[in-house]
Write a structure and sequence with these properties.
By secondary structure, the chain is of the alpha/beta class. The chain has helices at 20-33, 48-58, 67-91, 102-112, 117-128, 143-153, 165-181, 195-210, and strands spanning 8-13, 39-42, 95-99, 135-140, 186-190. Bound molecules: adenosine-5'-triphosphate (ATP) and magnesium ion (MG). The site of magnesium ion (MG) has 3 residues, from α1.
Length: 212
């Protein structure tokens, strides 16, 4: 399908604590050093409405939250962030990098929560129209290692982190289904490397793929 915009849209994906945010920070340095303009965001990404929706999702007290409600809220939050923050920049020709996007919903709510990847894809395609990323980096690390990285560094634990290890394993398996399904868009990154090595790898891939 023909792109609707002149910019380039990248998402970074992977389980909890695998190092997405850290890798993006290192990537930023590289982009800056090389004079490449970019816009970095994350869901809910500074959109007031998206932020409010996200607070409902991650509130540890919302134990009764239904899985489909969770999926719908994420899709709603995603749409608002897309419309307010992402699309205007893609239309201006910018490189937009987002820390998580649709594949998180497919892996977490679709596969790990058991709603089904197809069903979650349906509500998300309504939410995002055809704005799929041009390139998606998946940070490959075992869920055990990811959780260890979080607990070592004492990030605040949210409702989804509290899930059992088997949930995080399913998230990982779900991502691997998506990688097979969307081969063209996904690039797998070895997240056991240092943030600098990871950023170098991503930087070179971006240059390679953007030039195609
Ligand atoms: N490449 C790496 N090697 C070793 N430790 C790392 C690496 N990347 C990140 N870490 C550490 O792991 C912890 C989790 O990293 P980070 O917050 O970047 O993960 P994340 O994937 O963004 O997590 P979340 O899903 O919670 O947003 C951090 O405390 C960070 O210092
Ligand atoms: Mg993060």
């Amino acid at each position: 399908m023909k792109k609707k915009y002149s910019g380039f849209f990248i998402s970074i994906e992977g389980g909890d604590g695998v190092g997405k945010t850290t890798a993006i920070k290192s990537l930023e340095e590289k982009l800056k050093q090389n004079g490449i303009n970019y816009y970095l965001t994350r869901e809910p990404g500074g959109s007031k409405i998206s932020e409010s929706i996200r607070n409902i999702i991650l509130d540890k007290n919302n134990k009764e939250e239904d899985p489909k409600t969770e999926a719908l809220l994420y899709a709603a939050s995603r749409r608002q962030h897309l419309v307010e923050i992402v699309i205007p920049r893609l239309e201006k020709g910018e490189l937009v990098i987002t820390d998580r996007y649709i594949d998180s919903s497919l892996a977490y709510q679709g596969y790990a929560r058991g709603i089904g990847i197809k069903k979650v894809y349906l509500i998300n395609s309504f939410a995002i129209d055809n704005y799929l990323p041009d390139l998606t980096f998946f940070l490959e690390l075992s869920p055990q290692e990811g959780l260890k990285r979080i607990s070592n560094n004492k990030r605040a634990v949210d409702r989804l982190d509290q899930e059992k290890e088997s949930f995080h394993q399913k998230v990982y398996d779900g991502y691997h289904i998506l990688i097979k399904k969307y081969r063209k868009r996904f690039v797998v990154v070895d997240a056991s490397k240092t943030p600098d090595e990871i950023a170098n790898f991503m930087f070179n891939k971006i240059l390679e793929i953007k030039q195609k």
